[in-house]
Amino acid sequence: MVTFTVEDLEGNRQDIEAPDDMGLSLMEVLKASEYPVLATCGGMALCATCHIEVLAGKDSLGEATDVELDQLEALPEFFPTSRLACQIRISEELEGAVIKLRGEDN
């Protein structure tokens, strides 16, 4: 199991524990945890409605792909630590990370 922290748009933080042996994406875990993540494209990195900002732990998550960066750079608000939750797999690299929800309509 991996534990990370999610901050919603109101600034409330909650620790989430997720299995790291099922190949789940962060987007899938956020939706299962009932966060308002639209994920319109179903995790294909085509819509950016699962936009998050990594507040802590970005270095261990690796670099965003070109496809992911193309979507992020088209957003009205893009941060150096922005990522798409659909492109981050639940793994030990996520342990202790802090993420903030940023997707549209969250």
Automatic annotation (TrEMBL):
GO terms for biological process: P450-containing electron transport chain. Residues 1-105 form the 2Fe-2S ferredoxin-type domain. One of its GO terms (molecular function) is metal ion binding. InterPro entries: 2Fe-2S_ferredoxin-like_sf, 2Fe-2S_ferredoxin-type, Adrenodoxin-like, Beta-grasp_dom_sf. The keyword Metal-binding applies. Belongs to the adrenodoxin/putidaredoxin family. This is Ferredoxin, 2Fe-2S. The lineage of its organism: Bacteria, Pseudomonadati, Bacteroidota, Cytophagia, Cytophagales.
